[in-house]
Amino acid sequence: MASTSDIKNGFTFRHSNDIYTVVEFQHVKPGKGAAFVRTKIKSLSTGKVLSETFPSGHKVDEVRVERHKMQFLYKDDMGYHFMNAESYEQAAIGEAFIDNPGMLREGDTVEVLYNTADNTPLTIDLPQYVEMEITYTEPGVKGDTATNTLKPATVETGAEVRVPLFINIGDRIKIDTRTNTYVERAKN
Hints:
Elements: E1 2-3, E2 12-15, E3 18-28, E4 36-43, E5 49-55, E6 59-62, E7 65-76, E8 79-84, E9 90-93, E10 109-115, E11 120-125, E12 129-137, E13 150-155, E14 160-164, E15 172-176, E16 181-185
Antiparallel strand pairs: 1-6, 2-3, 2-6, 3-4, 4-5, 7-8, 7-10, 8-9, 10-11, 12-13, 12-15, 13-14, 15-16
């Protein structure tokens, strides 16, 4: 058991029959009354972010986790197959554990968060930015670049991203995997 004094960003614990990780926290000592900890916690099963307040000294059930670098190999009817970069062990992980599977290419390295008690995967963290090639988009019309208008474009994995009008087929772009949005043209 851990207490609220152990809470920090990335701390993983069991709460309300689910496993949560701390996204943001703040220890508050008001002038009058007892101290407390205000947190934003993310459910590792649903991805929902909640605001929760715990009284100072409150006991929480800590979940011990390990992070493993794994390489994405392929996808089939059993799920997404990954290989541990150190031990070369392979694991099939369901799509529900991946926040944005459309941004995952074969050979990409991801970070998998495992619960050490039963060695089950909790989440898969993709790199924050990935570079992908545009495989299809409508051509931009000359003179339409003065506004911040976006158009749909398909990238090499088949995912759709909204891009500015000046982006064409064959261009490489940088994409934010958390929001699935265009960031910039990739530097060569």
